[in-house]
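just leaving the lab so this will be short. what follows is a protein written twice so to speak, once as letters and once as structure tokens for the fold. can you read through it and tell me how you think this chain folds. anything you notice is useful, everything is just below:
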Amino acid sequence: MNHLTVFSAFFFLLFSACTSDETAEPIPNCEQKVVLDGDLFQTAPSDRAVIISASIGEECLEIEFSASGCDGNSWTVSLIDSEAIAESLPMQRSLRLSLENLEVCTAIITQKISFDINALQVEGHDELILNLKDWADPIRYEY
């Protein structure tokens, strides 16, 4: 085999491996990722927050909530999964919104945050019921 043939084969393999798959699904454009941690589910901060809405769109769970504070800029917010999966049809997972709020103002601030929930998917299934603590309605997640 001559050098030109080896060189050509190398570049063919290099560039064919690097081509993008246009049929691949886009990565969700969520603000945060869900945290899967059973211990943290129990122990993470739980300062008072009122969930106003919760809905799924584009692989993100969007939660709108309000709490007292000055402007909400110092809040630490996360969505935590208990890591327990209820063996029902469809399967169910439990989540909670964790808020650490050190602001001592009395204004009511509303925020909306989206969470990437792809990590909640269960192999071999195409839907889950998400039970969000302090939110009455189960959330159907189809993937």
